[in-house]
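@channel sequence for tomorrow's demo:
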Amino acid sequence: MSKPNIFFLAFNYLPWLSAKFGSIGVVGLTIALGLFLRVWRLEELAGFDFDQETAAWWIKSFLIDGKFSLIGQEISVGGLFIGPVFYYLLSVFYFVFGLDPIAGNVTVSIIALITMALVFVGAKSLFGLKTGLLALFLYAFSSSVNFYDRTVAPSNVAMLISCATLYFLLQVRRGVLFFVLIGIFLGLTFSVHPGAVVLIFIVLVYFVYNKHLVSASKVLATLIPISLFLFPLIIFDLRHSFLNTLSFISILSRDDISPNSYPWMFGLLINLRTVITSLTRILLPDRIGSILWTVPVIWFLILSFFKNRSSNLFLILWFSVSIITLSFYRGVIPEYYFLILFPVFLIHFSHYLINISASKKVYKLLIFALVFFSVVAHLNSLFHYRYLVGLAYKKQAVKYVIEESGGKDFQVDYVTTLGQNTGFNYLFYWYKRLPVGNSGVKYIIVLPMSLAKESGAVFGDIKVLKKHEEKLSVL
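C-alpha cells (generated this afternoon):
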C-alpha cells in the first residue's frame, strides 16, 4: 500500500486529523486556537473609545444607579436607537469584573467562541464534515474576522445571529421549536444593528420560496418572540412621540451621495464593491487579499448566481437581500453593515474550494498554497498588530495622573484628534478619582503623542503632560 501524497495530506489536514483523533477533537482544537487568537493581548488590543465608553456609562447607570432603559445604543447615522439587550448582556460581565471595561472584551470573546461553533455546525449540516472543518479553520484564523470579534459593540453579535439563523433554517423540518428559535434570534437583531435586521427579510423571502414549510402555528411561533424583543422599542416610541420611527423615515430620505439619475443603483454598485473588498480581506488581509482573491471570489459569486443556484440558495439569499435592502439608504455604508454575510460566505466558499480540490490534483495544490499563504498572512498580521491607544494604555495614563497627583485635586484637559478624547472619563470614575473642575494641578492628555512637542510620560501613543506656569506648545 503506497504512502499518502504529502500534498494530499496537507490540504486535507483537518479531515485527516479528524480520522485519527475524531472530529470533535479537531473542532475543539481549532475553536480553542481561534479563541486564543481573540484573547491574546486582550487588554492591549482592546479598544475603549466612544462606543465602548457609552456602553460603560449605560451599564454604570443600570448597575449602580438602578436605572432601567428601553433603548440601547444610538446608531452612527444618528437619531435611531437599537434595543438594550446587548447592554444588559454586558452588564452581567461588568458586574462580575467589578465594572472593569475589560468585561466587554471578555463578553465578545465568548460570543466569538459560540459563533465559531455555529460556523462549523452550519457548514457541516449544509455541506458535510470537510466543508465544516475548512470553514471553521478559515473563520478562526482570519485576522479580519478577529478584528470584528474583538470589537465591543452591538454589531459584533451580527455574525452569531446570522450563523444561528442559517442553522435553524436547516432544521425547521424537525418541528415548531426551530421556528421559535428563529424568532428569538430575529428578535435579537433589533438590539444589534440595522444591518442585522435584514435577516428578517432574508427569512421572509426564504419561507415565501418554501411555502410548504410554513403553517399558521409556525408563523405565530416565529412572530411572538420577535414581538417580545421589539416591545421595548415600541414602548419607547410611544413615550417619545415616535422618535425612532420618524428617525428611520428621515434616514431613508437622506441624500448623502451626489445627485444621480439612479441613486439606488449607484448605491447598489458601491455596496457591491464594499462587500467584495471585505470578503477578500477575510481570506487575506489588506491589499494583498484584494489582489489574490478578488478574481476567485467574483468568479465564485457568478457561478453561485447563474450555475449552482440550488446548492448556494442561502448565499444568494444573504448576498442579494442584504445588498438590495441596505442600498435604499443613500449614504455611504461601511463594511460592518454587512457582517451577516461574512460567515455565510465562508461556509459556501469553503464548499466551493473543497469541490475544486477534488477535481484535479493541480487544483488541490493551488488551493492548498492559497489557503496556507492566507493563514500565514493572517497570523503575521495578528502577531505584528499594535494598537497604541487601546484600553491598556489608557488605563496606564489615567493611573499615572492619579498617582502623580499624590492624592490632591487635579484637572485634566485633552489635546487630541477629533473624537479621540474618549474612554478616559469613565476610567477616572472606575479608579475612583475624578478630575475636579478648575482647581488643583492640571494635566494634559495628548493623543496621538505627536501633537505635543514637550517631553512627558508616554504610554503607547498617549502622552501625559503636567502643566506648569510656562505655556505648553502643541502642534
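heads up for whoever presents: The first helix runs from residue 6 to 11.
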